[in-house]
Amino acid sequence: MKIMSNEMLVAAYRDAKKQGQDRDWIRMLKDEVQKRGLKTT
């Protein structure tokens, strides 16, 4: 995965979830968000 800032990671996760993209991609983004201890709301 491309290295992203925290803000870019959360934005990518929100966009992927909203657009209903590939579930594996959403899961990978979500795992990285949780690993960094970020909030998506």
Features:
41 residues, mainly alpha
SSE blueprint:
Elements: H1 6-19, H2 23-36
Helix pairs in contact: 1-2
Question: What would you say this structure looks like, in words?
Answer:
With 41 residues, the chain is mainly α. The mean pLDDT is 90. It starts with 5 loop residues before the first helix and ends in a 5-residue tail after the last helix. The protein has helices spanning 6-19, 23-36.
Short description:
By secondary structure, the protein is mainly alpha-helical. It has helices at residues 6-19, 23-36.
Q: What amount of the residues lies in strands? A: under 5%
The total beta strand count reads: 0
Number of helices: 2
Structural class from helices and strands? Answer: mainly alpha
What is the average of the pLDDT values? 90
Spatial extent as radius of gyration = 9 Å
Profile the largest sheet.
none
Helix content: 55-70%
